[in-house]
């Protein structure tokens, strides 16, 4: 049986592992690194993006959506996610929940030529697996979203992107 100190250390270790997992998730999204993203999700992951507009119950369908809408090979889509303010609760030896403030910037330099930004809160569930903590459920509800047509700002230009 673990002492109180050992339990506290395990809890803190688990929370840090979950934070690292979520950071890997958003980095994979930003870089369109679908193999890295796949490694953060259980196979039967449940998702609810954009206030439930995009809802899935398996990893393959989630990855197919993201590949088709945020693929780095498209070169016209640049997207960035930033998560902060985690509230992580360990709910059992092998499960946890988390809430994260999220900022997202989406730029389409192609035919749509728009920029959008949003603030939202991710609500996640996590499962400890043989490979470590994984996301078992994720989704976000928007606090706000706004955007504009890039052509409306005559002086707007990119100084550098990951594609240049």
Describe the structure.
This protein has helices at 4-30, 34-38, 59-70, and strands spanning 41-49, 54-56, 77-90, 95-108, 114-129, 132-149. With 164 residues, it is an alpha+beta fold. The protein has a single domain, classed as Nuclear Transport Factor 2, Chain: A, CATH 3.10.450.50. Strands 2-1-6-5-4-3 form a 6-stranded mixed sheet.
Question: Helix and strand layout, with pairings?
Answer:
Elements: H1 4-30, H2 34-38, E1 41-49, E2 54-56, H3 59-70, E3 77-90, E4 95-108, E5 114-129, E6 132-149
Parallel strand pairs: 1-6
Antiparallel strand pairs: 1-2, 3-4, 4-5, 5-6
In short:
By secondary structure, this protein is an alpha+beta fold. It has three helices and six strands; from the N terminus they run ααββαββββ. The chain has one domain: Nuclear Transport Factor 2, Chain: A (Roll).
Q: Note the beta-strand portion.
A: over 45%
Distance between the termini: 56 Å
The low-pLDDT segments are none
CATH architecture descriptor: Roll
The arrangement of helices and strands along the chain is HHEEHEEEE
CATH classification class: Alpha Beta
Number of strands: 6
The rounded Rg comes to 18 Å
Please give the count of helices: 3
Quickly give the structural class: alpha+beta
User: Looking across the biggest beta sheet, what order are the strands in?
Assistant: 2-1-6-5-4-3
Average of the residue pLDDT scores: 92
């Amino acid at each position: 049986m673990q002492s109180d100190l050992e339990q506290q250390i395990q809890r803190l270790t688990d929370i840090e592992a979950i934070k690292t997992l979520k950071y890997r998730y958003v980095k994979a999204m930003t870089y369109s690194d679908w193999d890295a993203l796949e490694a953060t999700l259980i196979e039967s992951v449940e998702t609810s993006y954009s206030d439930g507009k995009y809802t899935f119950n398996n990893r393959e369908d989630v990855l197919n959506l993201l590949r088709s809408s945020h693929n780095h090979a498209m070169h016209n889509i640049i997207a960035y996610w930033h998560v902060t303010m985690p509230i992580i609760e360990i709910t059992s030896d092998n499960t946890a929940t988390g809430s994260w403030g999220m900022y997202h910037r989406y730029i389409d330099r192609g035919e749509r030529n728009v920029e959008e930004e949003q603030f939202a809160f991710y609500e996640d569930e996590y499962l400890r697996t043989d490979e470590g903590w994984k996301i078992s459920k994720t989704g976000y509800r928007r606090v706000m979203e706004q955007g504009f047509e890039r052509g409306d700002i005559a002086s707007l230009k990119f100084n550098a992107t990951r594609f240049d």
